[in-house]
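Lecture 7 notes: from sequence to structure.
We start with the chain below.
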Amino acid sequence: MWSKILSYVPEWPIWGQAFLLFLLPILYLKGFQWLRSSLKKGTFSNKDQQNQDASTNSSSSNEETGSYANIQLTGDYAKDLISVKATFGQNADVFIREFTIRGTNTPAAVIYVDGLVDHDLIDTHMFTPLMIKGVPDTERKIFEQPRDANELKAYVRSQLLPVSQVQEAETLQQAARAVLTGKNALFIEGMTGALLVGSAKGKSRSLEEPVSEALLRGPRIGFTERLSDNTGILRQFGGSNALFMTKHQVGTRVKRDLVIAYIEDIANADLVTEVEKRVQNLDMDIMLESGYVEQLIEDDELSPFQQVQNTERPDRVVSGLLEGRVAILLDGTPFALIVPSTFSMLLQSPEDYYERWIPGTFLRMLRFLAATIALLGPALYISFISFHPGLIPTKLALTIIQTRQGVPFPSIIEALIMETSIEILREAGIRLPKPIGPAMGIVGGLIIGEAAVQAGIVSPFLVIVVAVTAISSFAIPTYSAGITLRILRFFGMFSAAIFGLYGVVMFFLLLCSHLVRLKSFGIPYVTPAVPYSLSDWKDFFIRAPLGMMKQRPSMMHPKDPDRKK
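Predicted structure tokens for the same chain:
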């Protein structure tokens, strides 16, 4: 009797696999909890917090850095000009044009950077009124014997500079930063400080269709690298008097302008405050691209999923603003950021709303299916071939066995060979020049796949699986989301190679548990699935008719929840 009972007890290797299957999720969760707690902002020890506060106070008190940070511009022309020349050193592109204001004996100078300024503005609106027209005899006393320090400055601003943008700089560092970003600094004998005239006129490309988000139907215009152009485009698309844009400067060493845009009577005030707080806490010497900002303001830097959406399309930004979200635009990049972001947003395309609701729903559901195939396709192939061939229909199993005859590698090795080859080809196709990049990717894939099958390294069935997986990843509208699924695909393949179909299920459950815990600016990442919100399902897996979408997403807690009264 006991021998019969013991015959049903699994052998030790099976017990070992079961123990690992139970232990790995716990180790995974505990490891990530430890890393997250150690990197999470505000969870340092008291000593570290004091050091951080001290460094923060030090950096805030020394906001202006450099050898001439504390030098005030006193109005002593000769002394100020010596400090200016010492500050800019031997910069060949910085020009100092000295002259005398007509009608007076007052010396003056204009400092500018060649290539960043508008020479017509300097010649027509600065040199002409100061050097050619000059100061009338009745006003000459202002230059010779001004009543106070501000009288001369006010007169120059109001009477001698017919330009729209004039600012003031009190210190040498402020003037130097303004000059190096494209403004013209005007120094006049007897005038305290400097006047910053005009704005930068750097080289900018024309408006073009977004390369990373091509559509068949929709606007053919995208953002550019100039912030003023992007804010203008956003105003053009979202022409509302409630559209607010607040400007900030980011970067401790190299300052760049950043704009936070939101619709004041829709966006939740707490969300706007949180975005501004995170932007103000950015601490890096320069923000070269919005990707820097994206990585520094996201909630969980250890997650493979992006919690901030990036886009080149102004129509997508405006639609996000009308849902109660907040947009971030950085000077020098065409990519705007939208927060908060959810997983469903990464699989949505603006074209879903430009077509009728039935084609839009079909295409959206097709993308969810493509994302599933891109994530689990090779893993399911490995688990069925290596562990569960009995689950495959008989005729199909016999066909697969025939195609695998002579293949010297296990399924995991041949899958890794093909997947790695495809990823290398994809990356090479992106980096190569446009005329030959797509052709190289197609021809390279055909040649490598055919050669691998003829050489007996991989089976033809696997080539089909890898091809379908690669094509499915191309169907994802957001490029960053596609990269995430491509990376996670390899983890799914290893789980399938170790535990079979149980490993795939374990991998999928771990992924779901991570997504459920993930948040973007306080909004659950997989909402409206978890937490459940029936009203928001009208724009989740399906795209309901526009007449039925009367409410804004409830997860955003907008001030005005109604789209359609």
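Points to note: Residues 77-197 form one domain. The first strand starts at residue 94 and ends at 100.
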